Queue: 2 jobs
Job 1
Amino acid sequence: MNTIHQTPGPDAAASDPSADTLGTSAAQARNAVLEELVLKEPGQFRVLTGDRPTGRLHLGHYFGTLHNRVRLQDLGVELFVIIADYQVLTDRDVADNLTGHVEELVLDHLAIGVDPARSTIFTHSAVPALNQLMLPFLSLVSVAELNRNPTVKDEIAHSRQSAVSGLMFTYPVHQAADILFCKANLVPVGQDQLPHLELTRTIARRFNDRYGNGSAVFPQPDALLSNAPLLLGTDGTKMSKSRGNAITLAADADETARLIKGAKTDSERHITYDPATRPEVSSLLLLAALCLDRTPQQVAADIDSAGAAALKRTVTEAVNEYLAPMRARRTEYAQDRTFLRRTLREGNERARATADATLTEVRAAMNSHY
Ligand code: ATP
Ligand code: MG
């Protein structure tokens, strides 16, 4: 991976005093630069991104990150998709139906257009050398830094466990290992991941400073945000697999209609796009706009004073039409379990070879090559 260059860092933007706690404005400012670099030299980028196998992927995933994954792959960027199975255990005692959820994630990716001949889909539990990176990485961060992470705090608030596990606190470090084992330099994610990306950059920088002997063992990866970095669910909070508020890619048209019908809105009949004061209505408008390739303001103007019921009808039609081809492909792939399992087996093999090479390099840098 020596051919992958380090893109100019976002540190100037990250130190912007007006940036919010998650770093969204800095990441958005950086996006345009990254998009230009990707278009010019896609071969200089490697993407790692992924999801927890806690359920089927939903529209928040799709417009937050999945759409970018396929777009980058099709531009010629090398893509690694991680199924983060150990991380299921951050907020629950046991991972229910793990094999089923893992297969569903593979299916979702195939349905949206991830091509296993060009891209690597893998589970991190099957890649021992990746997980071993977590030990030196843990030594590079302080407990105070882990304690400050706003996303971890939010997830603890929504956790199913009465006590917070060590894995919950340290999983952003595990994520640094997920990203850096393949020396990814671009990570298309939703807004909640920005603090984790910042920590990954810190770990890469500290590792290089401490062990690099003047050269960079790891790149400092950039987050790539979409224009829907935080899509809300039917209850008006972040759409999330674990919160029962999601519209999944795999849902059928009737279920989609039912879920959108039950979505939270407000009592104002005149429909306007105003994310700050009308977050639920605005999120629905954004969803329709993304599916229709229009602006949320245009969708709002069309609905005008017809009220929430008309808004929901518009959203339902837009979503069902947009997802129809993906849903059809999903049904086809679901009939070929052998292909699904082969995709994962080959992905795991490729990821293992990459992780072994990186660990060899890390052990040499750390003088632990005996
Ligand atoms: P869980 O509730 O189990 O944590 P999740 O729905 O939050 O599930 P993850 O697997 O944690 O999904 O997230 C995978 C990726 O999808 C991350 O990059 C995350 O930022 C992005 N993502 C998840 N939910 C949304 C959302 N509502 N809007 C935009 N991006 C999202
Ligand atoms: Mg999550």
Job 2
Amino acid sequence: MPLAYPATAADWRHLARQRLPRFLFDYIDGGASAEHTLAANVQDFAALQLRQRVMLDVSQVDSRCQLAGQDCAMPLALAPVGLAGMMARRGEAQAARAAAAAGVPFTLSTVGICPIDEVRAAAGTPPWFQLYMLRDRGAVQALLHKAWAAGCRTLVFTVDLPTTGPRQRDLRNGMAHSGPRAGLLRASQILARPGWVRRVALAGKPLTFGNLTEQVPGGHDLGAFKAWVDAQFDASVTWRDIAWLRQQWQGRLLIKGVLDAEDARAAVASGADGLIVSNHGGRQLDSVPSTVRALPAIVQAVGRQTELLLDGGVRSGVDMFKALALGAHGVLIGRPWVWALAGGGEAGVGSLLALWQREFTVAMMLAGVTRVQDIRQQQLAAL
Ligand code: FNR
């Protein structure tokens, strides 16, 4: 039976699986090694319980808030996801348009397909820009310059990828290999999805890293781009480099990929405006704690005055509420928006965000809270 009215992130995942070549679906869906952390991110949200409160006046509930100084319809932003433009025609532009319509920020990855100007023009508002530190600091400066010129004022600097985590599904599907054998394997998976070939491979060109076209020597082949980026990840970066980054960037700086209280203190001391508690969606070091589990110690270490966002395993408006009850100011979502994009394009992302907005508002009402800033630990049920 076709799924006429997708209602959950899981429904969109189901549709994405039907529409994408296998190696692309698994690239989104998978995590590092045995995927323990990937599973824990979701399960630890599910294990948290909320207090139901009644007979409080919840006739006026307001889900609006500010994230990185920006007015938002709810405490949620779309996380940076590399290659999202492979999942739907000009994918980042479509998703950014849906995010703008829903009143939430969209974050464009360094390794997105659509260039920043295209995303900005599509959405009518600048995205947040995510940066990986590259060995070529001139290339970093050029990227930051382009982001600033496009109107971006929030930089998300990702610190948990000195190298790419071991993603076994990508190995198995030939996504992580080059050469004719891997090419044939991917081609067989592509041929099984002719709709994707029509919609994305043919109508969605160019499928290159749109923000890096000036930096990458040698043509417009995605393989060449990937090889260049892999060689460019700078594993020597330390907190001292934040001082350099601060000189290059006059806007807000959010540091993404902190999971440890000690690192959280160092990040605040380095001059970050906020932190994103993240284990990269379980795609880097397997068997690190879920973000839900890591958050309380980080809140305690840096205090509520530091803007703390969290991502990893957020799968509903109720999970958003739980993250805030644990002390986050907001959440980012990765896989859910990409599944919705693959399954239904801009309308799919819009539908997912509208459902979550409603679910989050209902959670506020039934927990007896009328303002986002009043969501507190006392709304969690003691286990
Ligand atoms: C990511 N993530 C990521 N993060 C980042 O800073 N830059 C990037 O380019 C990417 N690329 C990327 C690709 C894919 C396919 C996934 C699933 C994730 C991590 C992402 O921003 C976010 O931290 C996680 O996706 C959050 O976990 P959930 O919401 O996917 O469970």
